[in-house]
């Protein structure tokens, strides 16, 4: 099982980027045009792509984690993923995962009992540090969000390195088994899941991939980890959307908050979810 020596690894990798890899003005020569749609920002162990809002000083940012088999390059080219954030004045940071078990598809090093080579929590900490320094982002207004396998990575980052973001938002991806029993600190978390999701069922499932056995976690079991961590084991505030969605809010916590939204759909990012996440993020106290 992967052991996360988080703060030391993140600090070491970020320091290497800030002091050792950057040239004059903080930019590496090879990355002089980093920030253009097809030009990645490269750092130790990987790359990320960025789309910046117009005429914004110290903008907030969304670090978006793609689903299995995708990449930062593929996702930065999707206006439906990028423009809802940019219109609200957010920079969009799209890192790429690492080769998975068979190296045919990019994946994330989620805590699922199988270790991929790259420590993705340390890598994402380095991406955050590099992007903040390079593009002048507001470090106090970082949202880490993702879909499916990327959503599961969001949960792991929130659990083991909560200092990396102000809020965390995941769609259709949560903890895998063996599930953690506790996290580093309370967080603000917004999770959405489709009631008819068969790829990542809300109740979890066992599966075999490339000859390796895995178990996707029960989302409610994971939510209970956050309820204990945030000290909000009381009843949630319940609401219903016109689209048939159901929502539970645990806002009266000792610290942090949890929003769980269950839609009538399947495995996907619901329409309007990005705007709803930004409304929630901007309302955090």
CATH topology: Rossmann fold
Mind telling me the CATH superfamily name? Alpha/Beta hydrolase fold, catalytic domain
Radius of gyration over C-alpha positions, nearest whole angstrom: 18 Å
Helix and strand composition category? alpha/beta
Name the CATH architecture: 3-Layer(aba) Sandwich
Largest sheet: 10 strands, mixed
Side-by-side strand order of the widest sheet = 1-2-4-3-7-8-9-14-13-12
| Percentage of residues in DSSP E strands | 15-25%
What sequence of helices (H) and strands (E) makes up the elements? Answer: HEEEHHEEEHEHEEEEHEEEH
Keywords: Hydrolase, Signal
Protein name: Phospholipase/carboxylesterase/thioesterase domain-containing protein
Your description of this structure?
The protein is of the alpha/beta class and 285 residues long. The protein has a single domain (6-282), classed as Alpha/Beta hydrolase fold, catalytic domain (Rossmann fold, 3-Layer(aba) Sandwich). Helices cover 28% and strands 24% of the residues. The chain has helices at 6-21, 72-76, 79-86, 120-135, 149-160, 219-230, 273-282; strands at 41-43, 46-51, 61-65, 91-95, 98-99, 106-107, 142-147, 167-171, 188-194, 205-209, 212-216, 237-240, 246-250, 257-263. It has a ten-stranded mixed β-sheet with strand order 1-2-4-3-7-8-9-14-13-12, sandwiched between helices. The two termini are 36 Å apart. The model is unreliable at 1-30 (pLDDT under 50). Keywords: Hydrolase, Signal.
Short description:
The chain is an alpha/beta fold and 285 residues long. Helices cover 28% and strands 24% of the residues.
